[in-house]
Amino acid sequence: MSPEAPQLMVVDDDPVTCDLLCEVFAAEGFASRFVQSSEAAIASLALESPDVLVSDIRMTKPDDGLALLDHVKHEYPELPVVLMTAFGSVDTAVRAVKQGAFDYVSKPFDINALVATVRRALAASSVNQPEPIGDEEHQQASGLVGHTPAMLEIYKMIARVADSPAAVLITGESGTGKELVARAIHVHGERAAGPFVGINCGALTETLLESELFGHVKGSFTGAIARKAGIFEQAGSGTVFLDEVSQMSPGLQVKLLRVLQEREVVPVGGDTPIAVKARLVAASNRDPELLMSSDNFRHDLLYRLNVINLQLPPLRERREDIPLLVAHFLRKHTRNDRTPPRVDDVALTALTTYAWPGNVRELENAIERAVTLNQTGPITTADLPSRIVAPVAEVSSSDSEDDLVPLFEGLPSIDELERRYLLHVLEATGNNRSRAAEILGINRKTLYRMAARLGIEL
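The structure corresponding to this sequence follows.
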């Protein structure tokens, strides 16, 4: 680190973003400068030594931020690199982690979060942490789709834990994609060559579940005409996934705890232990705090399962991802010989404002239904289930019109209308400037200029 102001290099092909970041970090006491390509960054690094490098990932080809990261880690291994991205996927998160990025923030970024991240990078004595971006091909391959900060955090956690042998507990509401996350952890880890064997603990009787988990020997019960390997044995050195583990009976919880402690299973009716080499990933729609307060779930088992916890956000908390998910499911459920239909604006509004109690699974079912019913033209509200369309119809016929009337009263000028709308958006977002800029389709620097022009203090 330099003895005076810490040196920051910003790499982004968007000049507005570069100006904004340099302005922000200059106010934070950094000596900051920017370049607008990875090639320019590489040339500059040969002449100067910044203390932190902040780079966008998706930039003009041939080289992007990941290529720049790879160069930096080979040539300047002590230089912390913070990545920025408006796109995220598990594959790119894993690449960034393994290439040695310090951390990342999502676009549109929270300025305070970015400053805090850069300060952490500055304080770090070595570079050992990760981060991501993504494109649609990678998202389709993993099944995990989303660019919101909440999903980027999930991608980052998947990348960080993939190679660890530690048990993982994935929690979240039904339909949030817990099995997809479990499979992503397996596929991107050192155990990817081994089997991924999963079972739903709430779908089987206690006796059948015990046999499926631990196996049985021939003659151990009526119908046991041959030896059967349980899923821990089937998985070998791969991954065992226990879905809805919180629905397991107390008796089986004791036996599962023994497996985790002793790293061996004893088949039903047998007496010879079999070594367990598989990694365990479990899932529950109840969070660890609720499980801890439950009399039906053993605390000692929870401690074993919950070494690493990944909490998946419900779809209603990441509505910005809904258009991406809709496009993904349209492609998935449209025949290969047809072009996926588009969704008209009214139908898309209905999809993005609905509460989605069934989360991503419910959204996929709705899109599959719409693709099936729609024969020609765009998908409209007529192709969607009535429960999804009804709330939009109610709002459009009453509350929303009343709420917006004050914006248009008195035949205001364009500037006054713009001022009223900006105030309306700021109030609706709780004065969250990043969210307001996102809704308005502008960056934060433009938002500040707009507010100053209209006489609004931010």
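The domain at 7-153 is CATH 3.40.50.2300 (Rossmann fold).
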